Amino acid sequence: MIVETSAGLFCEAGGFYIDPWLPVERAVVTHAHGDHAHPGSSSYLCASEGEPLLRRRLPDALIEALPYSRRVRLGQVDVSLHPAGHIRGSAQIRLERRGDVWVVSGDYKRAADPTCAPFEPVRCDTFITEATFALPIYTWDPPSFVIDDIVAWWRANRADHRPSVLFCYALGKAQRIIAALHGRADGPIHLHGAIAAITGTYRDAGVAMAPAERIAEGMRGTALAQSLVLAPLSARGTPWMKRLSNASTGFASGLMRVRGVRRQRAFDRGFVLSDHADWSGLLSTIGETGASRVLVTHGWSEALARYLAETRGVETGTLKTAYEGEAGELTHEVEDEV
Ligand SMILES: [Zn+2]
Ligand SMILES: [Zn+2]
Fold it and tell me: b/e string for 62-84 if b means 16 or more Cβ within 10 A?
């Protein structure tokens, strides 16, 4: 039902592409991250909750929004979107034709996230799963533990009169952190402009979040000594950072599970907080779908496909995307600066 093409995954019977990276006639988009939502297509279909975010990225596009679980007929295929739990509005795409069911996961996670609907397991015959963190070393602690660590780090820095700069990607991760700090923040939260704009879209959608303000132009030094500052990685090493010269720096990412990565990238602290499923989350999800065939994409796909073939006895394969990095989340951090 789905084949790889030079423009992306294509469903011929339905006449549409999923997250195409070249302009096409009809794009069905799993979510608004830059490596999934590319400009130039004639029309886009996305989940209703994700529409304002997709519109931010593609202001002039023709976008059609579909509530989760509602079916539409595209060509000869029944299509519906189901929560992926990755960022707000993220969707798995379910395709059904003559009793054959395929699900394309897009990016997904199983951990709690107050900014979006939780992942919904969907039964299918063929499951196309992401594999951003598909290695056994990737295991996540409960997000509440990570938030506790962030709060403790912030408090210690406040006692030293140093700002706490927490790098995170601008769409999804930042808002997840601000929402998790709702009712817990005991100091001021300040935002880089790129994060402030997207956070506004989340607030407009009614997501409850801690108070947080964009850093004003002249703000620097002692004015930020008590603040938790959220900034995208792209702000690192730019003149914008000069106002925060004595800051303690942290990075919130699944990549921080690997200590060498934190050292190499010279953050004072790493907080292991990911918007992707960890190894056990991937395996349990694949089991829950009941799929007899699992196609793996986006990240450590070979490793996961091999493991599934050896241990689960399911038919497996890998699919290439235009953004195959050794760690997909890093790709997101580079791609997702708005
Ligand atoms: Zn994503
Ligand atoms: Zn992705």
Answer: ebebbebeeeeebeebebbbbbb
Return d(Cα 45, Cα 67) in angstroms, integer. 11
**Tokens coding 22:** 């070249």
Protein residues within 5 Å, CB atom, of ion ligand 2: 35, 107
Say how many C-beta atoms besides its own lie within 10 A of residue 148's C-beta: 14
**Residue 188 burial (CB count, 10 A):** 18
* 86 CA → ligand 1 middle, Å: 7
Question: What's the gap in Å between 306 CA and the centre of ligand 2?
Answer: 21
Task: Tell how strand 43-47 and strand 77-83 pair up.
Answer: unpaired
Inform me whether the pLDDT recorded for 72 exceeds 90.
yes
Q: How does pLDDT run across 136-186, given as a tens digit for each residue?
A: 999 999 999 999 999 999 999 999 999 999 999 999 999 999 999 999 999
CA of 259 relative to ligand 1 center, distance in Å: 23
Ligand 1 centre distance from Cα of residue 31 (Å): 7
* 17 CA → ligand 1 middle, Å: 17
How far is the centre of ligand 2, averaged over its atoms, from the C-alpha of 248 (Å)?
A: 29
Query: What is the distance in A from the centroid of ligand 2 to the CA of 8?
Result: 13
Cα distances from 238 to residues 191, 226, 235, 241, 325, in angstroms, run 15, 22, 6, 6, 25
**Count of beta carbons in the 10 Å neighbourhood of residue 128:** 24
How far is the centre of ligand 1, averaged over its atoms, from the C-alpha of 175 (Å)?
14
